[in-house]
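Residues and backbone
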Amino acid sequence: MKAIVYDQFGKADVLRLADVPQPEPRPGDLLVEVKALGVNRADLLQRQGYYGTLTYGESALLGLELSGEVVSIGSDVTGIAPGDRVMAIVGGGAYAEYARVDRFMAVPVPEGFGFVEAAAIMESFVTAWEALVHLGEIAPGNSVLIHAAAGGIGSAAVQIGSALGTRVFATASASRRAEVEALGARRVFDYNSEDFEQGIREATDGQGVDVIVDFVGGHYLGPNLRSLRPGGRLVQVGLLSGQDNTDISLGLVLHNHLKVIGTVMKSRSAQEKRAMVQRFAKDGLPMFEDGRLCPVISQTFPLARAAEAHRSMEAGGGFGKIVLTIDNED
């Protein structure tokens, strides 16, 4: 089968299309003919060598989410049959014509959705659901701040927060303000020219927000903690700033009994990932069929142009997910 490979860590130019062996499903797996797949920042980090050679027991190929058609099932699989349309999270291997998928990491493609739309759902919305609902413990009437709200996970988090009845604030570039507001944000702060800490203070009458979901890290930590109300939760999902070491005001954390929670999907165990997917499938997935949630797609590229897709993500400025498509027809 065709897949995207790289012979050494480096810039996007190291990516190339090559022939590789088709994966062999285990008893609890599906073999899926991939139709489309989402590009995630973790793919860029893996290509650059950030994770080293760690595969966490899964494919060494890039790719954490996909949509496609089930070709065959393992001996222990029930509830899914060949020919079913699924979308799934994988521990690697999505940048290929066929992928091995853990049965409990796959869910049905929502009614009326195509493969491209489905490929933009799983990683973003499962991660956002975990951050806001499971770890952030949001409730109707809460207030939340979502950073990097024009990105794939950020835009998903804005939608989820709005759909669940919270008051959503966000940061994004001024050029994306209207689009983020259209997803449900009450107010969007331009990260280039506005002080979100001051903005949150004014918007909440000095009380702060209940939950912050942050993808930036670094120098955002201090303003984030000062923007939380007593008992608030900061859920740290990423480090777009590139800074993983920074000062923390422990006095503020103690005095306001704040929670700082870190989460990343790639390094979680298979059991933890299955639980994340099932939580989302139970309560989040129905929201796509009734229109409360919808994937946001920035660009699509064919699989062979994966390097171009990576360069586009690195350049930034897009709104929503980048998706790679695969034409499996001979």
Observations:
- The first strand starts at residue 2 and ends at 5.
- Residues 161 and 248 are 27 Å apart (CA to CA).
- The mean pLDDT is 93.
